[in-house]
Write a structure and sequence with these properties.
alpha/beta; about 150 residues
């Protein structure tokens, strides 16, 4: 009997009181979304190194470490020249090279990306122009998954 009295009193107390709103913010969904976005950016960041699409030739050469201060020169399939992601006007390549800033008199390394379908003479003309402008450290970019010739 005592049990029935105690349980009835407990119910009346709950029904008469109001619940107070919770003042805490649940950050678990926020953290979950941030971790997913972090993973997406970590996966896609290396793929966005260059916006100019180029079909690179294959090579068995060892990969080299690139500096953040490298200058990337790209020749696309149509023969247009890009410095970074900026397309250079026809005949304006020497002027664009002269405009590149050189920190402390030291010339940065140039990373040259050229489409595999280009004429060898066109690539050599760009390399000659780079050499003439004083950029003597030139790295050629290739795909690293080639088999032995």
């Amino acid at each position: 009997m005592a049990m029935s009295v105690g349980s009835g009193g407990g119910r009346s107390r709950r029904s008469g009181s109001r619940r107070t709103p919770m003042a805490e913010i649940n950050v678990t969904p926020f953290v979950d979304v941030m971790l997913v976005l972090l993973i997406i950016f970590m996966v896609t960041a290396p793929l966005m190194t260059s916006a100019v699409p180029v079909d690179l030739p294959d090579s068995r050469a060892n990969p080299s470490e690139g500096d953040a201060e490298d200058v990337t020169v790209t020749l696309d399939a149509d023969g247009y020249i890009y410095i970074g992601d900026e397309r250079i006007a026809v005949g304006g390549f020497p002027d664009a090279l002269a405009a590149l800033q050189r920190d402390g008199g030291e010339t940065p390394q140039v990373t040259l990306r050229a489409d595999r379908g280009l004429d060898y003479g066109r690539v050599m003309a760009v390399m000659g122009e780079l050499n003439r402008a004083g950029f003597n450290a030139i790295a050629l970019v290739t795909n690293g998954s080639a088999t032995a010739p």
